[in-house]
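User: C-alpha coordinates for THOC7 protein, please.
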Amino acid sequence: SFFSDEVIRKRLLIDGDGAGDDRRINLLVKSFIKWCNSGSQEEGYSQYQRMLSTLSQCEFSMGKTLLVYDMNLREMENYEKIYKDIENSIAAAHEKISECKKQILQAKRIRKNRQEYDALAKVIQHHPDRHETLKQLEALGKELQNLSHIKENVEDKLELRRKQFHVLLSTIHELQQTLENDEKLSEAEESQETQMEAEAKQ
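Assistant: Done. Predicted C-alpha coordinates:
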Protein backbone atom coordinates (compact mmCIF):
# COMPACT_ATOMS: atom_id res chain seq x y z
CA SER A 1 0.00 0.00 0.00
CA PHE A 2 0.95 3.67 -0.31
CA PHE A 3 1.20 4.02 3.47
CA SER A 4 3.60 1.08 3.73
CA ASP A 5 5.74 2.42 0.87
CA GLU A 6 5.87 5.83 2.52
CA VAL A 7 6.91 4.31 5.84
CA ILE A 8 9.64 2.29 4.15
CA ARG A 9 10.86 5.35 2.26
CA LYS A 10 11.10 7.42 5.43
CA ARG A 11 12.93 4.63 7.23
CA LEU A 12 15.45 4.36 4.41
CA LEU A 13 15.99 8.14 4.44
CA ILE A 14 16.55 8.12 8.19
CA ASP A 15 18.65 4.98 8.20
CA GLY A 16 20.99 5.78 5.32
CA ASP A 17 21.35 2.61 3.25
CA GLY A 18 18.65 0.78 5.21
CA ALA A 19 20.97 -1.51 7.13
CA GLY A 20 19.19 -0.81 10.47
CA ASP A 21 22.12 1.04 12.09
CA ASP A 22 19.94 3.88 13.40
CA ARG A 23 17.52 1.43 14.99
CA ARG A 24 20.37 -0.59 16.51
CA ILE A 25 22.00 2.51 18.00
CA ASN A 26 18.68 3.60 19.51
CA LEU A 27 18.21 0.10 20.87
CA LEU A 28 21.72 0.14 22.30
CA VAL A 29 21.09 3.47 24.07
CA LYS A 30 17.83 2.19 25.50
CA SER A 31 19.50 -1.02 26.66
CA PHE A 32 22.29 0.98 28.28
CA ILE A 33 19.77 3.18 30.14
CA LYS A 34 17.85 0.10 31.30
CA TRP A 35 21.09 -1.53 32.35
CA CYS A 36 22.02 1.55 34.37
CA ASN A 37 18.58 1.56 36.00
CA SER A 38 18.34 -2.22 36.43
CA GLY A 39 17.10 -3.18 39.86
CA SER A 40 18.39 -6.73 40.07
CA GLN A 41 21.51 -8.52 39.00
CA GLU A 42 19.54 -10.82 36.74
CA GLU A 43 17.90 -7.92 34.95
CA GLY A 44 21.27 -6.14 34.63
CA TYR A 45 22.85 -9.26 33.15
CA SER A 46 19.99 -9.57 30.64
CA GLN A 47 20.40 -5.95 29.54
CA TYR A 48 24.15 -6.48 29.32
CA GLN A 49 23.65 -9.44 26.95
CA ARG A 50 21.30 -7.36 24.82
CA MET A 51 23.91 -4.62 24.53
CA LEU A 52 26.54 -7.14 23.48
CA SER A 53 24.17 -8.55 20.86
CA THR A 54 23.41 -5.09 19.52
CA LEU A 55 27.11 -4.20 19.37
CA SER A 56 27.80 -7.42 17.46
CA GLN A 57 25.11 -6.52 14.96
CA CYS A 58 26.58 -3.03 14.51
CA GLU A 59 30.08 -4.48 14.00
CA PHE A 60 28.73 -6.97 11.47
CA SER A 61 26.90 -4.21 9.61
CA MET A 62 30.02 -2.04 9.57
CA GLY A 63 32.12 -4.93 8.26
CA LYS A 64 29.56 -5.63 5.58
CA THR A 65 29.56 -1.98 4.53
CA LEU A 66 33.36 -1.95 4.29
CA LEU A 67 33.31 -5.11 2.17
CA VAL A 68 30.77 -3.58 -0.19
CA TYR A 69 32.87 -0.41 -0.39
CA ASP A 70 36.02 -2.37 -1.23
CA MET A 71 34.12 -4.40 -3.80
CA ASN A 72 32.82 -1.22 -5.45
CA LEU A 73 36.35 0.20 -5.61
CA ARG A 74 37.64 -2.96 -7.28
CA GLU A 75 34.71 -2.91 -9.67
CA MET A 76 35.43 0.70 -10.62
CA GLU A 77 39.07 -0.15 -11.28
CA ASN A 78 37.98 -3.08 -13.42
CA TYR A 79 35.60 -0.87 -15.43
CA GLU A 80 38.33 1.71 -15.96
CA LYS A 81 40.64 -0.98 -17.29
CA ILE A 82 37.92 -2.26 -19.62
CA TYR A 83 37.23 1.27 -20.88
CA LYS A 84 40.93 1.79 -21.57
CA ASP A 85 41.10 -1.53 -23.43
CA ILE A 86 38.09 -0.50 -25.52
CA GLU A 87 39.68 2.87 -26.31
CA ASN A 88 42.91 1.14 -27.34
CA SER A 89 40.95 -1.29 -29.51
CA ILE A 90 39.10 1.57 -31.20
CA ALA A 91 42.39 3.40 -31.85
CA ALA A 92 43.87 0.22 -33.33
CA ALA A 93 40.76 -0.19 -35.49
CA HIS A 94 41.16 3.35 -36.84
CA GLU A 95 44.79 2.61 -37.70
CA LYS A 96 43.79 -0.57 -39.52
CA ILE A 97 41.07 1.32 -41.42
CA SER A 98 43.64 3.91 -42.48
CA GLU A 99 46.00 1.16 -43.62
CA CYS A 100 43.20 -0.52 -45.58
CA LYS A 101 42.42 2.79 -47.34
CA LYS A 102 46.06 3.08 -48.36
CA GLN A 103 46.02 -0.46 -49.71
CA ILE A 104 42.81 0.27 -51.64
CA LEU A 105 44.44 3.32 -53.24
CA GLN A 106 47.44 1.20 -54.14
CA ALA A 107 45.18 -1.42 -55.71
CA LYS A 108 43.45 1.29 -57.75
CA ARG A 109 46.80 2.56 -59.00
CA ILE A 110 47.80 -0.97 -59.95
CA ARG A 111 44.53 -1.41 -61.82
CA LYS A 112 45.03 1.88 -63.63
CA ASN A 113 48.59 0.85 -64.58
CA ARG A 114 47.29 -2.45 -65.86
CA GLN A 115 44.74 -0.71 -68.06
CA GLU A 116 47.48 1.56 -69.42
CA TYR A 117 49.67 -1.45 -70.14
CA ASP A 118 46.78 -3.15 -71.92
CA ALA A 119 46.30 -0.08 -74.09
CA LEU A 120 50.03 0.06 -74.76
CA ALA A 121 50.07 -3.61 -75.70
CA LYS A 122 47.38 -2.98 -78.30
CA VAL A 123 49.45 -0.20 -79.81
CA ILE A 124 52.57 -2.40 -79.88
CA GLN A 125 50.68 -5.11 -81.73
CA HIS A 126 50.42 -2.77 -84.74
CA HIS A 127 54.16 -2.10 -84.77
CA PRO A 128 55.74 -3.06 -88.12
CA ASP A 129 58.80 -4.75 -86.52
CA ARG A 130 57.39 -8.11 -85.50
CA HIS A 131 60.51 -9.35 -83.69
CA GLU A 132 60.82 -6.23 -81.57
CA THR A 133 57.09 -6.25 -80.95
CA LEU A 134 57.24 -9.82 -79.68
CA LYS A 135 60.04 -8.90 -77.29
CA GLN A 136 58.10 -5.95 -76.00
CA LEU A 137 54.97 -8.03 -75.62
CA GLU A 138 56.89 -10.68 -73.71
CA ALA A 139 58.33 -8.05 -71.38
CA LEU A 140 54.91 -6.49 -70.88
CA GLY A 141 53.40 -9.89 -70.23
CA LYS A 142 55.89 -10.56 -67.46
CA GLU A 143 55.30 -7.17 -65.98
CA LEU A 144 51.53 -7.64 -66.16
CA GLN A 145 51.87 -11.03 -64.51
CA ASN A 146 53.96 -9.49 -61.75
CA LEU A 147 51.40 -6.72 -61.30
CA SER A 148 48.65 -9.32 -61.21
CA HIS A 149 50.42 -11.17 -58.40
CA ILE A 150 50.89 -7.91 -56.53
CA LYS A 151 47.20 -7.11 -57.00
CA GLU A 152 46.18 -10.55 -55.73
CA ASN A 153 48.42 -10.15 -52.68
CA VAL A 154 46.95 -6.74 -51.94
CA GLU A 155 43.40 -8.07 -52.34
CA ASP A 156 44.20 -10.97 -50.00
CA LYS A 157 45.56 -8.54 -47.42
CA LEU A 158 42.49 -6.34 -47.78
CA GLU A 159 40.20 -9.32 -47.24
CA LEU A 160 42.18 -10.36 -44.16
CA ARG A 161 41.99 -6.81 -42.74
CA ARG A 162 38.24 -6.73 -43.33
CA LYS A 163 37.80 -9.98 -41.41
CA GLN A 164 40.05 -8.80 -38.57
CA PHE A 165 38.17 -5.51 -38.36
CA HIS A 166 34.84 -7.37 -38.28
CA VAL A 167 36.08 -9.58 -35.42
CA LEU A 168 37.34 -6.50 -33.57
CA LEU A 169 33.98 -4.72 -33.88
CA SER A 170 32.17 -7.87 -32.71
CA THR A 171 34.46 -8.08 -29.66
CA ILE A 172 33.86 -4.42 -28.79
CA HIS A 173 30.10 -4.93 -29.12
CA GLU A 174 30.23 -7.99 -26.85
CA LEU A 175 32.26 -6.08 -24.24
CA GLN A 176 29.78 -3.21 -24.27
CA GLN A 177 26.87 -5.66 -23.95
CA THR A 178 28.62 -7.42 -21.05
CA LEU A 179 29.13 -4.11 -19.26
CA GLU A 180 25.48 -3.17 -19.72
CA ASN A 181 24.33 -6.59 -18.46
CA ASP A 182 26.63 -6.33 -15.42
CA GLU A 183 25.25 -2.90 -14.58
CA LYS A 184 21.65 -4.11 -14.95
CA LEU A 185 22.36 -7.20 -12.81
CA SER A 186 24.06 -5.08 -10.13
CA GLU A 187 21.11 -2.68 -10.05
CA ALA A 188 18.65 -5.57 -9.83
CA GLU A 189 20.58 -7.17 -6.96
CA GLU A 190 20.79 -3.90 -5.07
CA SER A 191 17.06 -3.31 -5.58
CA GLN A 192 16.27 -6.82 -4.36
CA GLU A 193 18.51 -6.48 -1.28
CA THR A 194 16.94 -3.12 -0.44
CA GLN A 195 13.45 -4.57 -0.76
CA MET A 196 14.32 -7.61 1.39
CA GLU A 197 15.86 -5.45 4.10
CA ALA A 198 12.85 -3.14 4.04
CA GLU A 199 10.47 -6.08 4.39
CA ALA A 200 12.59 -7.48 7.22
CA LYS A 201 12.19 -4.20 9.15
CA GLN A 202 8.43 -4.42 8.94
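User: Anything notable?

Assistant: Residues 12-19 have pLDDT under 50 and may be disordered.
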